[in-house]
Amino acid sequence: MRREAVEMICKNDDSLQSLFLKTTHMYFGRAYDALREMDVHPRQVPMLHLLGKKEGLSQREISQEMKIKPPTVAVSIKRMEKSGLIIRRTDEKDQRMSRIYLSPKDASLPKMSKKWWKTVKTPFSAAFLRAKSVS
Question: What b/e readout covers 65-91, taking b as 16+ CB neighbours within 10 angstroms?
Answer without folding.
Answer: bbeeeeeebeebbeebeeeebbbeeee
